[in-house]
Amino acid sequence: MKMKKAATITIVALIYKQVNAFSTTATTATTRETNVNFSDWIADAPNEIIEWKKCQVEGTIPSYVKGTLIRNGGGIWSGEDESYSHIFDGLAKIHAYRINGQEVEHQARFLQGRWYNEYVKKNKQSLPAGIGTGPVLDANEIPKGGISHTAQVLYDTVVNFDNTPVNIWDFTPHRDTTKKRITAITDAPPRTLIDVNTMDTLSSSTMNSIAYGSKGYELLITAHPLYSQNENKDDTSVDSYNVAVELGLNGICVNLVKETSEGKRTVVTSIKSEDGTIPYTHSFGLSKNYAMIVLQPLRLNPAPDKQIEFGFLRSMDHVDHTRVILIELATGRVVLDESIDEKIYFYHMISQAEIMEDDDAVVSLRLCAYQSSDQLTGEHQFMRLEKCRKGRHMRNKLHRGGKFCDVICNVKNQSVKVEWNDEINQGFELPVTRYSRTFNGEVPPSNELNVLQAHPRYVYAFGAFALGSQDYDNWGLFKFDMMKNEIDSYYQQDSVYLSEPVFVADPNGKEEDDGVLLSQAYFGHEQETKLLILDATDMKVIAEVPTGNVAPLDFHGTWIPS
């Protein structure tokens, strides 16, 4: 019965050519060419909006939606005769929306770090050269003789690299918003500090303070910190956790790092690499009592020449196992460390649950995962620009999206079980729940006495190849019901390309899905970016905010409530 409903949704959508959920434009969607101008969405967007610009609201924004939405991503990939080759390497650009009732203001700003300022100093003709996700560019400015090209690129990457185009994190979620500073981050130590009220860049750094005394250097740290779930929402400070990879005298270590609202960083636990290789992870799991680190079967290749030729993702080495580590937060003790034969590849976690069975902990981490590494490291990885800009036929070679995957650890049995969800066929990425991204003191509720923390029932995400389409450029936003294992509802419109949704809860709501989703979307026909506000219960658009601007594909961001 579950599969029948999901299949019916797909069939109906295909028959009606994915009729738009926003009825004012649905009637004209089938008379126009479908899925146009996707390439605009992954092209340079050099124009900025420096001051807050008032936007016209079409529809009605609920009165409880008051605050600032900030999105982060690349904005420039091209110089005069050169180009970065991966979407993750663009010069960081933020898009912000300040919402107060029916009033919405918008900004679009490049982050003013060393990396961007070097580009400006070169009259915006030449891009900085460094080791990134894609291949490194040949730069004419690299000195000839006395120092090798490779050594210079490595030096510039470590010393000058401060481009942070992946996520936005609020390390002080309870601080007065009139004085608030938020941080742009990436999968490396650099950070950029931003004033929430002006969107000005205040400062940037090339590396975090050393995590493990004088013995190590943080090489990688995930772009997805998580808030401690043990603080009460009335507390004045909230700790953030993250996972970093450190190189040093103790060898290669994976560190669980805690950072207070006052900026103090400490290592909760340090775990040695079992074989001296450098693991890669983009996110991890956190619940009230445990952190779970899943080290996928990818290891950073230390050969600089290979990284310069292919970029750090495509140059990675592959191992034959997945390593799962469970850490007790109260003591910092590693209570499970197992390597399993099953290969799990992923960018993003969704949620983590805890169950007590006979006084023993069972911890479940839910992922958006893949059973092969193609999406991360393959020839047609997401979003390799020199491939994807060649046209729709090349984008149709991209992966159809991730699947729900639960990694379940039993502390007493020292066992790890992996469960893939094969009932939901729609691939997806950038998953969020009501409990993601912003700290509100909530954890997913449960009616079972032995469940300390449950997985959320509803997961929201975008999906390409939407609703069974064979066209990658067909995108939609989906609401997945994990109790019924099916698509509950969705938003899809031809030529509308959507970003990660952010959930804003209705403070007077009684159900998990009472609230709205905010998603920045590029409308291909109009060649304009709009902010969409969707009812999270049925995925219908209740308001649109045209910006008169073009924002490229963005990755992550945050909601700062007033």
Question: Keywords, please?
Answer:
562 residues, mainly beta, 5-stranded antiparallel sheet, 9 helices, 40% strand, globular
Concise overview:
With 562 residues, this protein is mostly beta strands.
How would you sum up this structure, described in words?
The structure is a single chain. Mean pLDDT is 89; it is low at 1-30 and 138-146. The strands form eight sheets. Strands 2, 31, 32, 33, 34 and 35 form a six-stranded antiparallel beta sheet that branches. Strands 1-5-4-3-36 form a five-stranded antiparallel beta sheet, with no helix packed on it. Strands 10, 11, 12, 13 and 14 form a five-stranded antiparallel beta sheet that branches. It has one domain. With 562 residues, it is mostly beta strands. The chain is built from nine helices and 36 strands.
